[in-house]
């Protein structure tokens, strides 16, 4: 799926940045493609981009309106349909990572036909996959796992793959979600694959490779999530990781949106993921811990990361604030 041109980011009327993961990811990792943002008056977030109408965005070089929000359940809200139709009328393509297909909404489908613009459903796998085989594959694999959704698994994988390559290592970021696919230009929307084939899709995403090559795989969900544990387990088995990186958002105490479900401790989460991963690769190990420290005061972050690193005897980093240099050194020294 090749999505053309630069992007205008659609933020709709969401109030929480956690619901704008796609927009945040694109601004942080593909800023050069983002020309502006479009918001309803009640929108409570700002990506720091210029607010543009659709004609202004076209004049600034945008070719595609990207739905930059990912609300619970992946549905397109009724109040978004009219502006999406207007964007199509202005000549913009539409790219969406929602579970709901753009063409299934009659008004959007009709507007696309009338304008000749294209609809891109990034969360459509676009192909079938085999069931998982469990076969040992050549090359190395590193999977991000989490205490919850939206804790930094994508950012961690992107930062690790970037820094591995900067240090002369062979590494590829493997996207498993709509935002990662928009950033990388390829991948598998793993939560849109029929459950029996999730492990097979993960195997397809990270095939045999050179002995020293690392597939750095974006994680999804969490084994402890009451709704999304299934995709996390399928991805864990199919990825057959040699290393897992535990990702956590500091300050979060309960599963986001599920106040009756406290988050597991870091040690419990590591052991649960290793226990499941060992079913496919008995040699798997936890190689590091990624902590999103954005909720902490800047002056407290270094000490917090150091304390966790000391407690677990593993490199601990913030993918944005510190980067994964300590992890890269650890990987280089401990994996032959």
From TrEMBL:
Domain D-glutamate N-acetyltransferase-like C-terminal span(s) in chain numbering: 131-327
Please give the Pfam families that the UniProt record associates with this protein: DUF1611, DUF1611_N
Q: Where is the D-glutamate N-acetyltransferase-like N-terminal domain?
A: 45-125
Which domain of life does this protein belong to?
Answer: Bacteria
Q: List the protein's name.
A: EBNA-1 nuclear protein
Q: What organism is this sequence from?
A: Sphingopyxis macrogoltabida
User: What is this organism's lineage?
Assistant: Bacteria, Pseudomonadati, Pseudomonadota, Alphaproteobacteria, Sphingomonadales
